Amino acid sequence: xxxxxxxxxxxxxxxxxxxxxxxxxxxxxxxxxxxxxxxxxxxxxxxxxxxxxxxxxxxxxxxxxxxxxxxxxxxxxxxxxxxxxxxxxxxxxxxxxxxxxxxxxxxxxxxxxxxxxxxxxxxxxxxxxxxxxx
Length: 134
Hints:
Number of strands: 0
Mean pLDDT: 91
Distance between the termini: 48 Å
Strand content: under 5%
Shape: elongated
CATH architecture: 2-Layer Sandwich
Largest sheet: none
Number of helices: 9
Number of domains: 1
Low-confidence stretches: none
Radius of gyration: 18 Å
CATH topology: Potassium Channel Kv1.1, Chain A
Structural class: mainly alpha
CATH superfamily: Potassium Channel Kv1.1, Chain A
Helix content: 55-70%
């Protein structure tokens, strides 16, 4: 990018528009120090997505572990989709386990209905766990 006739080479700047500043600062801090940035309140799900996008696997794993500890009825469906889209087996498993244990509360929610429509394979996996097939 900087060795060819790209805009970034001419302007000596790379503009990253799809990640908010706090998340990107946390990502850079982790890359340089190995520590998760804690001075600001950074959304763990956003940091998880950024870590996956920029292939920072150790940060992605730490974020997945953090998210799996923060599972609630309100966010379990979202975290299951995140795990699916960003290939995180641990978060996927923890989310499915949480959903199976809280099926009555989660499966009546609007966000779960969206999953059954947009990601039927995920809802099928959850049903298999709930009824004891997996």
